[in-house]
Amino acid sequence: MTTTQLRTPVSAHGASAHLTVDGVSCSYGTHRVLTDVSFTVPAGRPTGLIGENGSGKSTLLRIIAGVQDPDAGTVRFSVPGGSPVRVGLLHQEPPFSPAETVADAVETAVRHLRDVARAVDDAARALAAAPQDERAATAYAHTLEEAERTGAWDVDTTISTVLEGLGLGGIPRDRPTGELSGGQRARLSLAWTLLRAPDVLLLDEPTNHLDDAAIGFLSATLREWRGPVLFASHDRAFLDETVTSLVDLDPTPQPHATTGDLVGDGTGTGIGVTRFSGSYSQYVLSRMDARERWERTYRDEQERLRELRAAVKDQHTVGHAGRGPRTEARAAKKFYADRNATVVSRRVNDARARLAELEEKQIRKPPAELFFRGLTAADPAAEHRLRASGPAVTAVDASVEGRLAPVSLSVGAGEKWLLTGSNGAGKSTLLGLLSGRLGPTGGSVHTAPGLRVGMLGQDDTLATADPDSTVAAVYRNIVGTKRAEAVPLGTFGLLAGRDENRRLGELSVGQRRRFALAALLADPPHVLLLDEPTNHFSLVLATQLEAAVPDHPGTAVVASHDRWLRRTWKGWHLHLEAPAE
């Protein structure tokens, strides 16, 4: 595959800038998210930010960008002369209004480059008017150097390269951004961030909505970026090929004395970070080994603590407490009593000292890790109930004008299908037809009688839920009180128990998506449709979900750009082509 190469934007500080995070902590009410987080991101070394959903990745990126204040700690940018630093943050909200056209949004991003180019013209005119003026000559040389360094002369070429590289080249520039699809708006937001050429680049899930070509373009761009790059991503293949190091926010072994108040169910909260130099694949193995050592050390320490506590309790006498000295003489009795008291005191004090030292230094208990319990965890009998024969869903020349070219597909009961294709090929649209959420403008779609179809879409299915209600209350409203009692939210291993009493609006994007999956699986459908199921999910959950699909007794259709998932896919495969213009 050929990847379009972008001339890497050059910021004012370029490779001289460094990002330092020092002791950052942040809480939402009583919920601790980040605790004493410290690390450095050097220029020219793209760094991946990983951790479970809700571990604080998005919060940390907002704090670094200055959008949110930490409870404690500082963020520093090391640049020559203390010059102002421009920080670029890609997050969930587009940086342009729905009324702006694509051209308007792009021009907003490159406005500073246009200003640099105009400054050169102004300086050139001033120098032409006063060719002997040294200040005019110096100003012209300075603006010319700035234009060359920032690429201001190539701005139009850069715009075309970025838009084309991210799959937006065919969109009319006069189209309002409010008329773009969700995926197109996300890609335009990424383009806007790259075109600003900030000194420090912060990206939150940048590969969502990107196809292979766009991911290749972004990966090449980040590897050549001259300033610090820090990004949170669920994309394992992208992490493998792009980062030079990783920062993991998940909990690590720490003394219990400093973390005792943070211990709870679920994933817990980390203190500090784990820094790893290398690829994601290498880190997975390293982390597994580290977790095993942590659990073994904790078990050994707890056993030693039990022994020392027993020793403190039992070692109050020496020899045989009921046996007196050989002689009954008063002096002998006093001698033996004094000796016993001295030895007992020494032994008890020694045991107490060892116990106090170990209690002070003992490591925190490894918090329980969330583990997805499967697609049919809510119904042990689902394995038999979901099995059927014959076609489950059939599409015959089904199409949606402008969104999906005619496609015919027969999904047999129990089959597993993977839908792939470039952005705009209609993967989400086809899932919408199979689910019944959309109607075809051509052809037909048929679902076998008696089969229920359930879909996890890319959009937030909780958008209409009250963000001030607790997670548990929203779950009851969605699945019904009777089913919520029969199938508690904790059944699935998707959310920590403590999160059920939090406000829905306090959950991260990944946690909300976990919640949406749990609500869908509370009554497992016969036909399960998953649209980009690894988007916003943690790396661990994405892997567990992928492993669960092949063994699912029902029918499953998955649409995904995820290259890691595609490499291991064993089921049926349908590749879609974009409809002709």
TrEMBL record:
A single GO molecular function, which one?
Answer: ATP binding
- The organism's superkingdom is given as Bacteria
Entry keywords, A to Z: ATP-binding, Nucleotide-binding
Q: Which organism is it from?
A: Kocuria varians
Q: Which InterPro entries match?
A: AAA+_ATPase, ABC_transporter-like_ATP-bd, ABC_transporter-like_CS, ABCF_ATPase, P-loop_NTPase
Pfam families for the chain: ABC_tran (PF00005)
Q: Which residues form the ABC transporter domain?
A: 19-276, 386-578
SMART domains per the record?
Answer: AAA
Q: What is the protein name given in its UniProt record? A: Energy-dependent translational throttle protein EttA
Q: Does the keyword Cytoplasm apply?
A: no
